[in-house]
Specification:
Elements: E1 8-12, H1 16-32, E2 37-42, E3 46-47, E4 58-59, E5 68-69, H2 71-79, E6 89-93, E7 95-99, E8 104-108, E9 115-118, H3 134-144, E10 148-159, E11 165-171, H4 181-184, H5 190-195, E12 204-207, E13 210-213, H6 230-237, E14 246-248, E15 250-256, H7 261-264, E16 267-271, E17 282-288, E18 291-297, H8 299-302, H9 309-317, H10 320-323, E19 332-338, E20 341-343, E21 351-352, E22 355-357, H11 370-387, H12 392-398, H13 400-424, H14 427-443, H15 450-460, H16 465-472, H17 475-498, H18 515-525, E23 540-548, H19 552-559, E24 576-581, E25 590-594, E26 602-610, E27 614-619, E28 628-637, E29 640-649, H20 657-669, H21 673-694
Parallel strand pairs: 1-2, 1-13, 2-10, 7-16, 13-22
Antiparallel strand pairs: 3-4, 5-9, 6-9, 7-8, 10-11, 11-12, 14-20, 15-18, 15-19, 16-17, 17-18, 21-22, 23-29, 24-25, 25-26, 26-27, 27-28, 28-29
Helix pairs in contact: 1-3, 1-11, 13-16, 14-17, 15-16
Length: about 700
């Protein structure tokens, strides 16, 4: 059974799934020379719909979504010619940070990829540009493609003598009527009231040649999908339909002070664990100017009730791993929240005679990328309708295989997320993975970083779960984790124990640099020429960097305490570092390193300083004579600075043959990693101290 000219397609639901179907169907139909009409029935009020406004409408209310647009989705939008206006983009994401139980792993968005943060509706109340949001943009593009959009609440479905579905709906006024979803949440009468037909303007009926159900799984919050009256309508269209498995999520808009916006600009955070009392399996924080969208999943959310939402969010915002994202003592105020259903499975049957379901009513990618899931199902259905037909047999042959394949990929996703929770919620496993990623980052070119690519694709949704799982168990990936992660973690742990380094109540922050960044920054920091190194590379060379939310004068002042006996950082056991002459941060300042072994003692003298920017020490004597120790302060963005440390030295070679033999073996077995372990710990101490003193 095929569509004919003058046939009408009715889409129930004007969210992304409905809008994507409309856009794709109308464009393909035009290419095929099919003159069919398409009507979208949307129950959420649209300010301006029907008016000749030069801009798209304002989608009222909440659309129960974190609002992150994955690289795959942005790429698909642009291939469709759907370029987001600047005032719809609430944030451009340049990096993803995964918060594990040990340290954070920051992943840069590749230069050829784009990720955005958007608001799906007009909430939170009072935000700027409420009439600019993603769903309204898509719906307007559907109108431009030829769709007619009417406001109405579908409450019944019947069939004509010809077997065509007739949709009955109650018309709604533009601007919004009735209570908000939040006001109705938990009210047992909410659904009856929503589906009641008031005879004020009378019922409406619309006959369709084909019906698309794109109403989503959140017709009533807090109520199981199978008890939702809307499903009665769906089952009349698709009798064998059984809704997909859903899971309760918690989404909250958190307001921050205006001056803190710059701290989070361009970043997105995934926090993979909670606490002993807050059982969180995964969560995300997506900055959008004055607001951060927090999305939580886990056992505590599963078991909660509507009245628990605010307490859960407040407990989440008090987690140390969350509080460290913003400056110390920053205020985070929840202003809007909901507990929507999240589709985590696939419907048992997605098509009937002249009808089908799309979006999260049919399937959604497990825990990721619900909007892209809507795009995949909507475009697949549009192609199936035009290429195969609108009868149930044709749709089962052309549409169901797509859903089935997507469903199978989620099975791989369940394994991936199980491993993800196991690793990132365990301090030891999390540390091993962090070390493996860091080792790869410091030693391999960008194109060869296998572990970083796996984490990027999983966090961003940039590949299938099947491919991700296969890449994770590739022999080279496993070897990277063992050699670059497990072995070095054991070595570093033993070093920390030897030097008395403790991480209790200390923030653990990444300090390693990408190989290409180190090569670039080395040339900037190293003094002209290579004094003390001859023409070759020094025997030891390393660099560390840490971001600090403070001002450069405060960072510079705390660097001046280097050498103070009462300083609060760089105080390892077996090593005494003290200023023996001169003033802090003044050229000529002399600092002595003293160890239990005299041949390892040496002194460094401050040769050059640039106020609030740069300190360069020279090793004056000892086995590393001529080496350099440089502190560099560089602005990353307003209120955020990067403190870098560059260390390089050659090792004495001796004059007598006995000395030459000794220093040869010393040079060969010199434990350079000890320096890395000491400064990694000290930089984390320094960051905590400065940030607590800054806010």
């Amino acid at each position: 059974m095929k569509l004919k000219d003058k046939d009408t397609i009715v889409v129930v639901g004007g969210g992304p799934a409905g809008a994507f179907f409309a856009i794709h169907f109308l464009r393909l139909a035009k290419l095929r020379g099919l003159d069919a009409g398409l009507v979208i029935i949307e129950k959420k009020a649209e300010t301006g719909l029907g008016d000749a406004l030069p801009h798209f409408s304002c989608r009222e209310g909440c659309n129960y979504c974190a609002g992150g647009l994955s690289p795959k989705l942005v790429e698909a939008l642009e291939q469709e010619g759907l370029f987001l206006p600047e005032d719809v983009i609430a944030g451009t994401i340049r990096s993803l940070t995964i918060h594990g139980h040990w340290k954070n792993i920051e992943l840069r968005v590749p230069e050829d990829k784009k990720m955005y943060a958007v608001f799906r509706g007009s909430r939170p109340k009072g935000r700027a540009n409420q009439d600019r949001n993603f769903d309204s943009f898509l719906l307007e593009k559907a109108r431009e493609a030829g769709a007619e959009v009417i406001l109405g609440d579908v409450y019944d479905l019947r069939y004509s003598e010809e077997g065509k579905p007739i949709v009955f709906y109650h018309p709604m006024k533009s601007g919004g009527q009735g209570r908000s979803a939040e006001e109705a949440e938990g009210d047992p009468d909410a659904d009856r009231e929503r589906f009641r037909v008031s005879g004020e303007e009378g019922d409406r009926a619309l006959e369709a040649s084909f019906l698309v159900m794109a109403g989503g799984v959140n017709q009533s919050l807090g109520r199981p999908t199978e008890k939702n009256p809307f499903w009665d309508v769906v089952r009349k269209a698709v009798p064998a339909y059984s809704p997909p498995e859903v899971r309760r999520a918690l989404i909250c808009e958190v307001e921050i002070q205006e001056e803190l916006e710059a701290f989070l600009e361009g970043e997105i955070y995934f926090v993979e664990y909670g606490s002993k009392t807050l059982k969180i399996e995964m969560s995300s924080l997506i900055p959008k100017g004055r607001y951060i969208t927090a999305a939580l999943l886990g056992r505590s959310v599963d078991d909660s009730r509507s009245g628990d939402n605010l307490a859960l969010v407040n407990e989440y915002l008090e987690l140390p791993q969350v509080k460290r994202i913003l400056p110390f003592r920053a205020e985070m105020k929840p202003v809007c929240m909901c507990a929507p259903n999240m589709t985590v499975g696939a419907a048992a049957q997605v098509a009937g005679e002249r009808a089908a379901v799309v979006g999260d009513m049919a399937w959604a990618r497990l825990y990721k990328d619900g909007i892209y899931s809507a795009y995949l199902t909507a475009t697949a259905l549009a192609r199936a309708v035009l290429e195969a037909g609108i009868d149930s047999q044709s749709l089962r042959a052309a549409y169901w295989p797509v859903i089935k394949d997507l469903k199978r990929d989620n099975d791989f996703g369940r394994i991936l997320f199980m491993l993800n929770r196991l690793v990132f919620s365990n301090p030891t496993l999390s540390r091993i993975l962090y070390q493996a990623v860091l080792t790869e980052r410091k030693t391999e070119p960008e194109r060869a970083r296998r572990l970083a690519e796996i984490l990027w694709k999983m966090a961003s949704g940039d590949d299938t779960y099947r491919a991700g799982l296969r890449a994770m168990f590739h022999p080279l990936a496993v070897w990277s984790i063992i050699a670059g992660g497990l072995v070095l973690t054991v070595r570093n742990f033993l070093t920390e124990q030897t030097f008395g380094l403790r991480w209790h109540r200390l923030g653990r922050y990444p300090t390693g640099l990408h190989k290409e960044d180190m090569e670039q920054k080395r040339e900037k920091l190293r003094p002209e020429g290579r004094p003390g190194f001859g023409s070759g590379r020094p025997a030891f060379e390393s660099m560390y960097a840490i971001t600090i939310k403070s001002e450069p004068n405060k960072i510079f002042r705390y660097l001046g305490t280097f050498g103070d006996r009462d300083r609060k950082y760089f105080r390892p056991r077996w090593l005494r570092v003290e200023r023996v002459s001169g003033s802090p941060n003044e050229p000529g300042c002399l600092i002595r390193y003293k160890t239990p072994f005299r041949f390892l003692d040496f002194q460094v003298v401050l040769e050059r300083q640039v106020e609030e920017k740069y300190l360069a020490y020279r090793v004056r004597d000892g086995f590393a004579e001529g080496g350099i120790l440089i502190f560099d302060i560089e602005k990353a963005k307003p209120g955020v600075f990067v403190l870098s440390i560059y260390v390089a030295f050659d090792i004495a070679r001796g004059k007598k043959w006995t000395e030459k033999i000794f220093w040869f073996f010393f040079r060969y077995f010199f434990p350079g990693f000890v320096h890395d372990v000491l400064w990694n710990h000290s930089l984390c101490q320094l960051k905590d101290i400065i940030e607590k003193d800054s806010y």
